[in-house]
Each structure stands twice: as structure tokens, then as C-alpha cells.
Amino acid sequence: MASAPKIAIIGAGPAGLTLARLLHVSEVTVDLTLYDLDASPTSRPDRGGTLDLHADTGLAALRKCDLWDSFRKYARYDGQEFIIVDKNATELVHRRGGERAGPSDRPEIDRERLKEILLESVPEEWVRWGRHLREVTEDGKLRFDGREQLEGPFDLIVGADGAWSKVRGRLNEIEPAYSGVSGYETEIMEPARTCPHVDKMVGRGSIIGSSDAKFLNAQRMGNDSLKVRSWYACPEGEAKETLDKYGKKGTLEKILERYAGWAPEMTELFRQGDLDELKHWTLYELPVGYKWDHKQGFTLIGDAASLATPFSGEGVNKAMKDSLELAELIEKSQDPNDDLTLDQAVLLYEQLMFPRAEKVQARTMNNKQIAFGPEAPLGLMTGMLKMKAGDSPSILVRMLGTAPVVAAVYGYFWIRAQIGWAVRRLWRRT
To answer: What is the pLDDT of residue 37?
Structure first.
């Protein structure tokens, strides 16, 4: 019998940890090591917001990981509540949350809780912390900062190392490009106590406002705090330069100036934020349809393979689906009754993943263009209707996504928004 394949996973995020867990519970033996830049699991505690997991991707991977019960402890079905408003705070869409278990449900979980569940499910000795990857050699070895001795060779190195993947550099020279969008994030730690009006406006899930090439949203976290973000189109580096030049207080003033003309209910999201938590974000993306020529011994999953902006909610779901498909094919390649080799398994994974990733990237790019285009927020709302209809197995629902129906819906909400805008202006004058 052939020896167990020696596999390295670079990056202990949801993608890398999902792959490690799936291989751990599989019926095959692997010699696996997972390397991560962080000094420890808790050395960088704040790594993102809340995630909605989808039935055929993220949730399917968790079921295969045999982690459904652990996930249910933290899953928030009420977090599916979703509100879209315009800059006048006129409500256009309000999807209610609730405790359900239907196939279309997309329960929320904090990214940190998801990582904890996954990390606790893999052997502790598999994970090496504090490893900053410096080089991936042609013959499948790894060099880390501060360690002259190379590790490996490995039969397979999987890049789960995100936007600036070092493993991707072994496959081709394409780097992420600036998406044209940057922004800021802050947090409201106890909104029910400090600003109940804001707490009520956001609800149990998230609220999105999009107009004038700007995007403002808040989302409920598992500890009841609110993560607040502002996105806007600007030159690369502008958000960081503003923060460096004006400091956090001055930057907040600049953010509020940018939203002049927006309803005070919306700008209140940032006014109530913890100034100490203010940070900048600059968003990058890989080209839609990005792929690489197969090279034995290397592959990519998650953002390393298909980096996109966060305007579709698909990133972690796509990443976990990558891990699910790759793990199943690796397991198949180790079946003595199957003639599939490890390299053939990786090639087949890539052939399946590329068109799936392109679809996610294209959808995300379209959402980004709509969100920061002249038709926002109504274009964003109707775009979501078409997306939902296109994904549905129901003929009736698909009909709702046809052009005439979408146009009618757009017109209805355009009139509703104009009435709401006029009423609000009259109310503020009196």
C-alpha cells in the first residue's frame, strides 16, 4: 500500500480548517500539517463580522465535518433579518428572521465562532502557529521567516492563505487589483443600552443603505454588538491616508461629511460607534474567471483562488465548498479500488472549481457595480430579486426574476421611495 500523502495547508482560516477537518474525519490516512501566520489562536481576536452559511456550500461542509451540533450552538436564525433602505432611511426591503430549518435558510454565525468550532475539531499537533511563509520552492518545500531549515517536501501544498497568497505565486504571477472601493469599520458594543433607537433600527440581522456611490451597513454580532461599515468609491490608499493624516476623530468627521444629505438615522450608525475601534479597509479582487495552469503538487482554495469583494456574501461559502470538493477527491484518490491519483484528484478539483468560482466572482462584481452605481439602492434590490429567482428550483419564483416583473417591482419601489423622501423632508421642516 502506498504511504500516506504528505500535505501542507497554508492558512488556518475557515477554508484551511475545513479542509483539515474533512481529511481528519475521512477514511484515509494523511500526513497533514497546517501552518498559520498568527502566533496563537487568540493573538488576533477580531477577524471579521458575521457570516451567513448556505445550504449547499457552508452548511453542507459543516454536516460533512460532523460539526452540525456544534454549529447549532452558535447559529442565529434570527440573524437572517435583512433590511435595505435608501439614504433617506426609507425602507425598501425587510426580510424577517426567525427560528426555522428550511432549505433556503442562511443562519448567521460569527466568523470567530466558526473558526473556534473548526479548530477544536482538528488534532492540535497538526497546527503550527507563528509561521510566516517566505518562499514556496519548485520541489514542494516551504521556507518560513526566522527558520533557515526548509520544511517538506510535500506531495501537495494547498494555499488557503488569502488575498496575498504566497502559494498562488508558485502557480502564476497574477496579483489582486484594487477594486475601486475602500471604507471604514467601527463597532457599537452595547447598542441596546447606549443607543436603543439604533439598536431597534438594525434589528436582529443587518441593515444596508446604498445611494450616491456610497454604501453604509450594520450587522448584528453574536454578543449583540453592532459591526458598522462604510464603503465608497475612491482612489487606492485614500482611506488609509485619511486616517493617517487626520487621526480617528478627524476621520470620523470626514466620514460624516461624505454622508452629508443622508438621513440622520443612517449617519447615527457611525456617530454611535466606538472611536477606538475605527479602522480602514481597502478592498482588492482577482479578475473574474481567474484560473491557473495546473501544476503538480500545488493548488488553491478560498480567497487565494478567487478573491472578491464582500458584496455577495459568498466568500466563506465558496471557500468551504472548495474544501469539501477537494477533500472528497483526495479521499477518492487514496481508495485502493480507484485508479485516481492524487495529482489527478487535484486537477479534477480545479476543473470543477474554476467555473463555480467564476459564477461567484461575476455575481459579486455585478453587485458591487450596482451598489455604487446610479441605480442604487433600487438596482441593488431588484438585482437581488433576479439572483434569488435564478437560483430557485421553482418555476414561479424564476418567473418573478424576468425583466417585466423586475421592472414593475423597480417602478413600485421607486415611487414608494420618492413618497417617503418627500414625507421625511416635510416632517423635518415642521
So the answer is: 95
Residue 215 phi, psi (nearest 5):
-140, 125
- Mean pLDDT across the stretch 183-205? 96
Helices of type H across 294-337: 303-306, 315-333
- The SS3 call for residue 93 is strand
Tell if the pTM clears 0.85, that is, is over it.
Answer: yes
**Reduced to 3 states, what is the DSSP secondary structure of residue 218?**
strand
Residue 306, SS3? helix
Does the pLDDT of residue 406 top 50, yes or no? no
- 7 strand-pairing partners: 32, 156
Distance CA 424, CA 274 (A): 28
Write out the three cell numbers for 337. 479500488
**Torsion sign over Cα 339, 345, 351, 353:** positive
Q: Say if residues 212 and 87 touch (Cβ distance below 8 Å).
A: yes
| Mean pLDDT across 234-262 | 96
Distance, in Å, from the CA atom of 140 to the CA atom of 50, rounded to the nearest integer, reads: 35
**Residues with Cβ within 8 Å of residue 51, at least 6 apart in sequence:** 58, 108, 109, 110, 111, 114, 313, 316
Helices (H) and strands (E) in the chain, counts: 15, 17
DSSP-derived secondary structure letter, 76: B
Q: Indicate the pLDDT class of residue 405, thresholds 50, 70 and 90.
A: very low
What is the C-alpha separation between 27 and 282, in angstroms, rounded? 42
Query: What CA–CA distance (Å, rounded) separates 81 from 224?
Result: 14
Residue 259 has pLDDT above 70, yes or no: yes
Higher pLDDT, 418 or 83: 83
